[in-house]
Design goal:
Blueprint lengths: L1 E6 L2 H10 L3 E3 L9 E7 L2 E7 L2 E2 L2 E2 L3 H15 L3 E10 L10 E9 L8 H8 L8 H8 L3 E6 L7 H10 L3 E3 L2 H11 L3 E10 L6 H29 L2
Parallel strand pairs: 1-4, 1-7, 7-11, 8-9, 9-10
Antiparallel strand pairs: 2-3, 3-4, 5-6, 8-11
Helix pairs in contact: 1-7, 2-6
Length: about 240
């Protein structure tokens, strides 16, 4: 079995790269900035693909995630793509800082395309997740929620309206882009998201995100360790 993680930020991936002693494969995706770390767990191949960096900062957002996912699927040919990272969530829906969720769907909240229902359906996406997601969440006692993706860290009123209309719960900047690519290649996708900020809280989003990134990333490591062990032992 080959598991392939797609991760935007090094801080999100580093804890479980270290946990499993994954090795960097130099220039695997050259000339692209994407980076591959690889190892073996319980007889299964474990890959972590980072979007990479540009201008001395991690590449975040839909474009970088799409590029990384395309190259990972074509070069690695994984059985399962796992998009793991941090997210915003809603305190009114029970979210807490560093709480980790399994995604039960993925959508875009900032692609507003006027026109008929077909255009609207395509713009929002509402992509399916790996069919084993619910069983995995149940087995590990983890909550589930719908991933909602946009290209900005902040959230405009119209974004919130779309999120509420389509049942979005976990606000990130990559998930639906990864799901979109996986839908084209017909590769199943699993989402693992840890909360850094509360979207319905008055605190500054970037400041809160920065303050909670370490704790959320450590929580991701713990959750991903359980997920990897479960998936590889039941492969």
């Amino acid at each position: 079995m080959t598991l392939c993680y797609i991760v935007a930020m090094r801080a999100e991936a580093q804890p479980f790269i270290e946990e499993y002693g994954l090795e960097l494969k130099e220039n695997f995706f050259a000339p692209l900035p994407c980076m591959l770390y690889e190892g073996e767990v319980n007889g299964s191949r474990l890959c972590v693909v980072l979007n990479g960096a540009q201008h001395n900062s991690d590449l975040v957002g839909c474009e970088a995630a799409s590029v990384a996912t395309v190259k990972a699927i074509e070069a690695i040919r994984p059985d399962l793509i796992i998009n793991s990272g941090t997210c915003g969530a809603f305190q009114s829906q029970g979210a807490e800082i560093a709480k980790v969720y399994i995604g039960n769907g993925a959508m875009f909240h900032d692609r507003r395309v006027p026109g008929d229902d077909a255009w609207a359906t395509q713009s929002v996406g509402n992509y399916d997740v790996w069919q084993g997601s619910r069983q995995l969440a149940k087995a590990l006692g983890m909550p589930m929620a719908k991933v909602t993706t946009g290209s900005s860290l902040d959230m405009q009123a119209i974004d919130l309206e779309i999120i509420n209309r389509h049942g979005g719960q976990l606000k990130d900047m990559e998930g639906a882009a990864v799901a979109f690519v996986c839908s084209l290649y017909q590769v199943p996708v699993l989402f693992v998201k840890s909360v850094t900020d509360l979207c319905d809280h008055s605190a500054d989003t970037f400041e809160t995100f920065s303050r909670n990134l370490h704790a959320a990333s450590q929580a991701l490591r713990n959750a991903n360790k359980r997920i990897i062990e479960h998936l590889t032992l039941h492969a």
